[in-house]
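Figure 2 data, in text form.
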Amino acid sequence: MSSANKTFGLAQKIWDYLCMHQEIKASDCMLVLGSHDTSVAERAADIFLEGLAPLIVFSGGFGYLTQEAWKVSEAETFAELAIKRGVPESAILLENKSTNTGENVVFSMQLLKARDIHPSSLILVHKPYMERRTYATFRNHFKEVPISVTSPQISMTDYLSSGIIPYETFLDTLAGDLYRIKTYSSKGFQIPQEIPEDVWAAYTELVGMGFDKRIN
């Protein structure tokens, strides 16, 4: 096996673990977590247009990959894309101060509460490899609210082919997100998630190859 094929295989194993593949359930509200990946906004718009949630909260200020590249917040950028796709502006709320996943969740729920909106169920939308961490983070703060987690329906091969993120940056990010799954529960940021031995072994190999820029 070539080095490139081995690296891809290690990444695929981690990707498959981080993607939860949950069934979307009709809910009172959709919480869309911002990032550099605008296909998340398109996925949220499509879910809305299918009639699965009547209200969308787009959450996100500026993060690691958008703070220097974008002039408008992630939330505002996502909302604009959703409106162009057919979502009415009246169905959108914006939370544009958060800078990480925990703040996405907490600030968005605070915004809903301030509007006297108390959803009994939510759909959470993020990038494919952020599904598990989104789930674990939300569950840490809100244990009782029923949720389903989803993302753009795309394979890792097609995700990389889309050019959304450079390959080496993707590998660094993938390793970093699994590291957070491993360590953030002890910091009070997420609920614990069991990581299979082969998935952690893949992480260890990737980090050993130098893909450790997002380990923090």
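Caption note: Residues 91 and 129 are 27 Å apart (CA to CA).
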